[in-house]
Design goal:
Helices cover 38% and strands 13% of the residues.
């Protein structure tokens, strides 16, 4: 799992969170998430019932802070405040098709998030660069410069990366995602879900919450129920960019009640 706040002349450098994603082999060459045996097995055993405390803990631990940061405040909510448009840069039509399905799935499961693919980079505020594994470091260097790329590789040697640029109101203005295309379908989908979701705001990895994909020890390959709670809380209109922990805690009870109803409906949960 990884997320990186990209330096910009217009915005100050904020936070950086990086983590390694473990390689897991699979057998389906161009499969959708539900068609992969590794993912289907995880879905069958997935925990779907959580207490309010378990959901709130994961939300606060991922929406605030950063696993690794260089500068800027990390004690505020960070999110897009408007439509999110995703552009995929690649000559791999199969991976672009899979990415589009991931984006559509996220859009269908996060109630107040307007996210969709776009055909032009000019219309995008999330750019996804799909590269071969051997070209990952070169791409990293082109994005962040040689010194920063070496620091990232030396620290965590990530397989994929996401980062965003925010303004002084903690609104995300632009995100960049780098995904490798040649490590198998499970790894690609696991990276795609994780990095796209982190690029929307919840960039802090935590090993103390066992149900979230924002945990170095967890590989999902799909948009699990627990992380749907996190993203739906983050993108509820009552949770605003720039809010502090006490401000968020003041509105969480009402927001969580509505989010529970939505997640139950969209996943056909029985309880």
């Amino acid at each position: 799992m990884s997320a990186f706040n990209q330096p910009s002349a217009a915005f100050r450098l904020a936070l950086l969170a990086l983590a390694v994603l473990t390689y897991v082999a699979d057998i389906a060459p161009i499969a959708a998430a539900g068609e992969l045996p590794a993912i289907a097995a995880r879905q069958r055993s997935e925990k779907k019932s959580f207490t309010d405390g378990e959901i709130v803990e994961g939300f606060l631990k991922t929406a605030f802070g950063a696993e690794y940061h260089l500068a800027g405040r990390v004690d505020r909510i960070r999110k897009f405040d408007g439509p999110v448009r995703v552009y995929a840069e690649s000559d791999r039509a199969d991976r672009k098709t899979q990415l589009a399905k991931v984006v559509a799935d996220i859009g269908a499961r996060v109630q107040h998030l307007d996210i969709a693919m776009t055909g032009t980079s000019e219309a995008a505020n999330v750019r996804v660069k799909l590269v071969r594994d051997r070209d990952f470091f070169r791409t990293l260097t082109s994005f962040y410069g040689a010194e920063k790329a070496r620091e990232i590789r030396a620290s965590l040697d990530p397989q994929c990366l996401s980062g965003f640029r925010k303004n002084d109101n903690f609104e995300i203005e632009h995100s960049d995602v780098i995904l490798t295309v040649d490590n198998g379908d499970f790894t690609f989908l696991d990276c795609a879900y994780e990095e796209l979701l982190q690029s929307l705001g919840p960039i802090n990895d935590t090993t103390s919450v066992p149900w979230t994909m924002f945990n170095d020890n967890v590989s999902m390959g799909y948009f699990d129920v627990y992380d749907q709670y996190i993203l739906n809380l983050l993108y509820d209109p009552r949770i605003k960019a720039g809010m502090t922990v006490p401000e968020v805690k003041a509105v969480l009870p009402q927001v969580l009640a509505d989010v529970r109803a939505w997640v139950k409906q969209v996943n056909d949960l029985k309880e």
